[in-house]
Every structure is written in C-alpha cells, then in structure tokens.
Amino acid sequence: MDKRKPKRSVFFRWVLNNKFSVLLLNILLILLIILLFTKVNFVFAPVGQFIQVIAPPIVLAAVLFYLMNPVVLWAEKKWHVPRLVSIVVLFVLLVGLIVLGISLLVPATQKQIQGLVDGWPKYWKALQAWLVEISNRPEFRSVQSQLNNSTAKIMSGLSSWFQKDFMNTFSNIGSAVSTVTTIVINVVTAPFILFFMLKDGQRFKTDVIKLAPVRFRPQTESMLTEINNSISMYIRGQLTVAFWVFVMFTTGYLIIGQKYALVLGIVAGFCNLIPYVGSFIAMVPSVIIAAFTAPGMLIKVLIVFIIEQTIEGRIISPLVMGSKLEMHPVTTIIVLLTAGNLFGFLGVLLGIPGYAVLKIIVTRLWRWIQSISGLYEEAEPVSPEAPVVEKIESEDKSE
C-alpha cells in the first residue's frame, strides 16, 4: 500500500504548525486577558486600597531589613550568636541611635527650619524681582511677553497647588488627625514587620520556592537570590552615598558660612536618593539663598558643589555602588520620568529597584522562551574541507 503523508492545509502549515505564529497568538491572548482585567478593575479596587495601607510600613521595614540583615548573618556565622539575640541587640542600638539623633539634631534642625521658613519669602521676592529685571532688558524685549506669561503660569500653578492640595490637606482638624494617625501607625507597625522579616526571612524564601513547580524550583531560587542581592546592594549603596553626601554638603556649608547649613545638608542627602538629578535639585534652594546673601557666597556654594560631585562621582559611588545594576544613564532617566509620572514621588524613589527586579524577571523569562521555542537555535557550520581532510587521513593510514 502506498502510504503517503496527508496533505496539510496552508492554515495548518503557516499558523498551527508555525512557532512564530503560536508565539504571536500567545501574546494576543495575554493582551486580551489584560484588557479583560481593565474592564473589571472595580473588582481589584479593594486590593489596591489594601496595598496602599500596608505598603508604607512594609517598604520601611524592608529598607531596615537590608541594612540589618547582613549584621545578623555575620554575627550568626562568625560568632555563632543566636539570631534572636542579635536582632534584639540591633533593635536596642537602633532605638539608641534614634534617640541620640533626635536629641542632637532635632533642636538645631528645628531652629534652622524656622529661620528658613521665615526668611524664604524674602529670597523668593528677590528672585521674582531679579527675573522681572532680566525680562525688562532690551535684549530680552522680543521674548518679554513669553517670559511674563511663563512666569505668570508658574506662579499661578504654585499658588493653586498650595491652596488646593497643601492647604486642603490640613484644612480641618479631622484630616490633620487622620494624617498624623496614619504616620504613627506606619512607624509603630514597621518594627513588628521588621522583627519577623529578620527572624523568618529565610523561611519565607523557602516557602515561596515551594510554590513553584518542582521542575522550576532551582531556577526560582536562583532568580529570588539574584533579586535579593540586587535590591540589597541598591538600598545599602544609596543610603550610604546619601549619608556621605549629607556629611560633605553640611561640612562644606559650615566651612564657607552658608546659612541653614544643616537643613540644606539634610535636603541634599535626602534628594540624593534620586539618582543623577537629586543633587542638582538639592542645590536650588542653596543657590537661591547664596545668590541673595552675597555674590561671593554663590561662588563658594558652587565650589562646594563641584568638590562634592567630584568626590561622590570619583570615589564614593564607585566604591559603594559599583556597576552591578548595569543601567545606562539614559535608561535611568527614562525610568525616573515614567515612574514619577505614574506613581509620583514614591515612584521616583522606588522606580530604579523596581526596574531592576522587572529586568531580572523578564530576562530570565526571555531566556526560557528562547530555550523552548527553538527559534533561536543556530546550526553548527559544516566545513566543506572536512571530507577532504578525512580522505587524506584515511589514505595516510592505508599507506
């Protein structure tokens, strides 16, 4: 009997039996599922509210966890100190440092903040007068109307934000009490979460790995380890660099006699948590204050800024951060802009580590797709001279 293979249709050959078409169909199904979720997003509204409630204390506890966990592991492995004992000792030291910082820094900081709040209107009015003077010069006369319109829009936007958002937040006692209560709850809840994260952190990782299929557990463990190392390195590195930025700016401002040196140093350290642009943002109030204090002070502030950027860029950041995140500066700026636009200030702070986690997951998923799809396998090149070489070798052997 003549056994011939059944003739396949074009649809079967180009769609059902084509790996690329199947991949496109899978992508289409994923997009349809996402579209379906957007149509029933009201179902997930309680989940979003729940995440908003628990996210702040968990984030605070996670930051402290990545700072304290290496010390706990070191004490456990090096000196065989029980994990619970080292955790309690670290908690006592942390409370002591907080009390010491409050007793030393808060009075001086409060005094300088009050002075800055009282004196800021004077600096702001002087800046406005300077901008008006610049716009009235003959060389800027052709664009004077545009400058005036832009200045008016900026001032109107700031005034609207201050009146609607900032003032309305504390327009009544109820909202103020609610805000203070939320902060207190987050601060009180975070230590409890931190304690159990330090105590049962490894157990949590083991439980997550058990949720994965047995076949994928080694890959899951490797991925979780890589994510943990990436986040740990980023958080410890950013906080360390921010601390030294605070020290350098405060010391430099004190040396040159800049007003509100401590407050401006704290602002610089906090803003440095935003990569690349944080220090420049922190320089704005310092430059304004120095410009209307004395011309020489402005030059001194710029010198302090140049020295700080040189030390940070050449010494501190390479030693502390290294290049383990492997992020191009353009990628970092795009991530900051996107995360800030989507999630506000919290997105700016958490955008980089979030991107690092997504990059690890997507990279591993892509490697898995490459391995199972067969679309990226390269055939080994066959050398045309191989048969000739084999023939010559066989002739030599026969002789």
Task: Describe the SSE topology.
Blueprint: H1 10-16, H2 19-39, H3 45-78, H4 83-135, H5 144-169, H6 173-211, H7 217-256, H8 261-271, H9 278-291, H10 295-320, H11 329-373, H12 386-398
Q: Note the overall shape.
A: globular
Low-confidence stretches: 169-173, 386-393
Portion of residues in beta strands equals under 5%
- The averaged pLDDT comes out at 79
Order of helices and strands: HHHHHHHHHHHH
Specify the number of helices. Answer: 12
- Which percent bin holds the helix content? over 70%
- Compute the separation of the termini in Å: 50 Å
Pairing-aware structural class of the strands and helices?
A: mainly alpha
State the major sheet: none
Give the strand tally.
0
The radius of gyration computed from the alpha-carbon positions, rounded to a whole number of angstroms, is 30 Å
Keywords: Cell membrane, Membrane, Transmembrane, Transmembrane helix, Transport
Family: Belongs to the autoinducer-2 exporter (AI-2E) (TC 2.A.86) family.
Protein name: AI-2E family transporter
Pfam family, one: AI-2E_transport
Walkthrough of the structure:
With 399 residues, this protein is mainly α. The chain is built from twelve helices and no strands. It has a domain of 138 residues. The chain is globular and about 95 Å long.
